[in-house]
Amino acid sequence: xxxxxxxxxxxxxxxxxxxxxxxxxxxxxxxxxxxxxxxxxxxxxxxxxxxxxxxxxxxxxxxxxxxxxxxxxxxxxxxxxxxxxxxxxxxxxxxxxxxxxxxxxxxxxxxxxxxxxxxxxxxxxxxxxxxxxx
Length: 134
Known about the structure:
The chain is mainly α. Helix content is 54%, strand content 0%. The radius of gyration is 31 Å and the shape is elongated.
C-alpha cells in the first residue's frame, strides 16, 4: 500500500489545541484497553490539559478584569465612550478648566503654565498648506 499525500493538521491556537487534546483523551478512554495510545502518555497529557485549562480560565478572567479597569480609568479621565473635554467631573475637564483659569491669571506670561506641568508651545503655528494645483 503506497502512502498518499495526506496532511493531518495540529492546531496552533490555544482553544483548538486544548479541544483536540480533550477529544484524544476522551477517545482513548472510550476505547479502553483497545486504544493504540500509551495510557501513561495520555495521563500525562491530561494533567497538562488541566493546567492549560486552569491557566486559560484565569487568562480570560484577567482579560475581563483588564477591560473593566481600562473602562474605569478612561471614564475617570474623560476619554471614555461618549465623553469629551466638556464632560463635567472628569480629569480632562478639570485640566481644561485649570488651564483656562491659569491662562487668564498669567496673561502674557503663559510660559508659567509650564510650572504647573503643562506643555507650553511658543513657536509660531505652521503655515497653511498651499492650495491644490489644478
